[in-house]
Design a protein that fits this description.
The complex is a heterodimer of chains A (about 625) and B (about 70). Chain A is of the alpha+beta class and about 625 residues long. Chain A contains 20 helices and 22 strands. Chain A is about 50% helix and about 20% strand. In chain A, the strands form 4 sheets. Chain A has a 7-stranded mixed β-sheet, sandwiched between helices. In chain A, strands 2-1-3-9-4-7 form a 6-stranded antiparallel β-sheet, with no helix packed on it. Chain A has a 6-stranded antiparallel β-sheet with strand order 12-17-16-15-14-13. In chain A, strand 20, helix 17 and strand 21 form a beta-alpha-beta unit. In chain A, helix 1 runs antiparallel to helix 4, helix 3 packs antiparallel against helix 4 and helix 10 packs across helix 19. With about 70 residues, chain B is of the alpha+beta class. Chain B has a single domain, classed as Alpha-Beta Plaits (2-Layer Sandwich), CATH 3.30.70. Chain B is globular, with a radius of gyration of 11 Å. Classes of the chains: A alpha+beta (about 625), B alpha+beta (about 70).
């Protein structure tokens, strides 16, 4: 535990321990009054030195009110009143609290920066047959780099040779490695697990995925949340107010009750000093940014990048969720989803005949057919493709027609017409006879229905599908997923106006989020209160335009993101209410004389301790 | 334009104070100091940036010598 302390922390820890030892000696040893006083004073000075120095300097600079001033006045005042043990203890505990806060902050910084430790140290370049390590920033577009097993891919590019598994967990939070081979794109930040890869660099370092992500994470602290701004403002007024209250408390009551009585003065000054001890707002001021930092850090560990505390805050208030269809709710890949053979044929026969007839085509439908059919064996001749209709071919001596209903109708073949909302129906005829139909459709993501249901449960009041696709297709998806409203056949700019209509429907403190895959919908992402891009790895426009970036295309990440946001916000408000509540309570008690400096310092340090511990829970939010 | 600097700042309160200090400099459109990430970002017109950064370093050094701005 102590190995990771900074020099500053180590020094302070030594001081605290020395001061604590002297303090104990002063309390326990049977010394004369003057001996105790000296021990308390030395103990005090050891820990108070930095505070006194800063307080003095601030007064000289005309910035009086900060925690150093409060603690200096309170402790020196206690000394003046003859309360040596309390004076020393107040400073000692204050420093213990400060030290602990510092330690906590450092730990969260380390834990977040280690998980964002994506920056590649070097890239291997082949020069005269020898590998040379160079700074990734110096590698030019078009150069060829070599990534050995165990190394981090330093730049985005295309695999020229080699196959390997890539560990993308640092980017996506996904632990299943990705298989890559020749011709495929790889993104920087992944770790090469097994084979040697030669990669042609397609982007310079500053445009690479890693550089963009790091930039995004580093800038996230700039966009402060409302609660953080509130706390900073609160502290600005709170401290001076408490100081003036303390002053009034020290002076006014004695003036009216016993001007001449020195014990009355002593009593009220003591209460005023107690007031100062609890007035320190540090725990509060620290715990809010610490919580958001932890929440954003914890989210990025799960492949969710959040561009600022304000978005984490806004995410909790999302009541309307607008969604794109293709690539977001559906996979965006067209696959054979149903084969319906006519009597006398099997599914395999129909699929095989169709795939063989289409085997020379690279039309998306042909690709899907071939993919579904698997290995093909047969002789294909006399292939004739009619645009907008389909293909006719001779397959193993039989005349096969594969195409839409126009193709079969023109050939004079009778068939049951069955169109499907979700995709394209391909009809197959063999030797002038209807053999069956194949449905090729975009597939709804497996977890989509589940996610929508979970989102509704978590407080999203309205879900809206905004799609550029045909009305029938969009409505079918909407129905299947129980989405409240479907708007279809929208051009990109019409999506923006659709979002604007929705924005007008919500109440003032409610927010609208839009989820899209970042292709063509950057304007919508920017227009919504919270723009969420998913599967955005490598899509520069989406990373740029979105407020929250889901690194892979799993829809369930949305639920995780909302859960993290809720938890972070809950912790922030717990801390705010708890800290202000305890402080106000102790302030009242001390004004009335029901408490003493001991209670005050324990309240102050205790609150700080609990708030910081609570804030650190944000790092693990969403588990 | 916007520029980001590394800053060494001791406490969350000090960060807020330094932030206000820099915001008051003439020509600064916006400034933020993040205590957690130890980053200072200044938004200002490009032609004034250099003078503003210089002034910021000067003011911060005077008001809060424990805070260090790293100007690259």
């Amino acid at each position: 535990m102590f190995a990771e302390l900074t020099t500053k922390q180590k020094k302070m820890l030594q001081r605290i321990l020395a001061a604590a030892l002297l303090y104990l000696l002063a309390v326990l040893l049977p010394l004369p009054q003057i001996g105790k006083f000296i021990l308390f004073l030395v103990s005090y000075l050891i820990v108070a030195e930095t505070v006194l120095r800063k307080a003095f300097r601030n007064i000289r600079n005309g910035q009086v009110f900060d925690e150093n001033f409060l603690m200096a006045v309170a402790s020196l005042g206690a000394f003046a009143l003859g309360e040596f043990s309390e004076a020393a203890a107040v400073m000692l505990f204050y420093q213990v609290g400060e030290w602990f806060q510092d330690y906590a902050v450092n730990r969260s910084r380390k834990s977040v920066s280690s998980l964002m430790d994506l920056r590649p140290d070097y890239a291997n370049i082949e020069v005269n047959g020898q590998l040379e390590e160079v700074d990734p920033e110096e590698v030019e577009k078009g150069s060829v780099i070599v990534v050995k097993p165990g190394e981090r891919v330093p730049l985005d590019g295309i695999v020229l040779s080699g196959t390997s598994r890539l560990d993308t967990s640092a980017l996506t939070g996904e632990s299943v490695p990705r298989q890559v081979q020749e011709g495929e794109e790889v993104i920087s930040g992944c770790i090469n697990e097994s084979g040697l890869l030669k990669i042609k660099v397609t982007k310079e370092f500053e445009d690479s995925t890693v550089a963009r992500i790091l930039d995004l994470v580093e800038n996230s602290a700039e966009k402060k949340s409302r609660s953080e701004a509130f706390i900073t403002r609160f502290a600005k007024y709170y401290t001076p107010i408490v100081v003036y209250c303390a002053l009034a408390l020290a002076v006014l009551p004695p003036l009216f009750t016993g001007m001449a009585d020195i014990t009355v003065w002593k009593q009220w000054i003591y209460r005023a000093l107690t007031f100062l001890v609890i007035s320190c707002p540090c725990a509060l001021v620290l715990s809010v940014p610490l919580s958001f930092f932890g929440g954003i850090g914890g989210a990025s560990k799960r492949g969710i990048l959040i561009k600022g505390g304000n978005y984490l805050e806004a995410l909790c208030q999302v009541k309307i969720l607008a969604m794109d269809k293709t690539g977001t709710l559906t996979k965006g890949v067209f696959r054979v989803s149903e084969v319906a053979p006519s009597e006398g044929y099997t599914k395999e026969e129909v699929l095989h005949a169709a795939a063989l007839a289409e085997s020379y085509s690279d039309h998306p439908i042909a690709v899907s057919l071939k993919e579904a059919a698997g290995e093909l064996a047969g002789t294909v001749t006399e292939v004739k493709e009619t645009a907008g209709h389909g293909v006719s071919a001779n397959v193993d001596g039989k005349n096969v027609l594969v195409g839409n209903r126009k193709l079969l109708a023109e050939a004079g073949i009778a068939f049951p017409e069955e169109e499907n909302d979700l995709g394209t129906t391909v009809y197959v005829a063999v030797d002038g006879e209807y053999a069956g139909r194949i449905l090729i459709a975009d597939q709804i993501k497996e977890e989509a229905a589940e996610t929508i249901a979970a989102l509704k449960k978590s407080g999203i009041q309205k879900t809206v599908l905004l799609s550029g696709d045909a009305r029938k297709t969009a409505e079918a998806v909407g129905r299947k997923l129980a989405i409240d409203e479907v708007k279809a056949e929208l051009l990109p700019e019409e999506k923006v106006s659709a979002v604007e209509v929705l924005l007008k429907q919500k109440k003032e403190n409610e927010k609208l989020a839009y989820v899209g895959d970042g292709i063509n919908d950057a304007p919508v992402l920017m227009r919504s209160d919270v723009g969420i891009a998913m599967g955005a790895l490598g899509s520069d426009a989406a990373i740029e335009a979105a407020d929250i970036v889901l690194m892979d295309d799993r829809l369930s990440k949305l639920v995780t993101a909302i859960r993290i946001a809720r938890k972070t916000n809950r912790i922030v408000y717990q801390n705010i209410y708890f800290a202000i509540g305890v402080k106000v309570l102790v302030l009242l008690l001390s004004a009335l004389g029901y408490t003493n400096m001991w209670a005050a310092v324990f309240a102050d340090v205790g609150v700080a301790f609990l708030c910081v511990l609570n804030a650190m829970r944000c790092l693990n939010a969403g588990k | 334009m916007k520029k980001v600097f590394k800053i060494e700042v001791d406490c969350a309160n000090c960060a807020a104070r330094v932030e206000n200090l820099i915001k008051e400099i003439e020509g600064v459109e916006d400034a933020t100091v993040s205590f957690m990430t130890q980053k200072l970002s200044i938004k200002a017109p490009a032609e004034k940036m250099e003078a503003i950064v210089e002034e910021a370093v000067k003011r911060v050094a005077k008001a809060d010598p424990d805070t260090v701005i790293y100007v690259r």
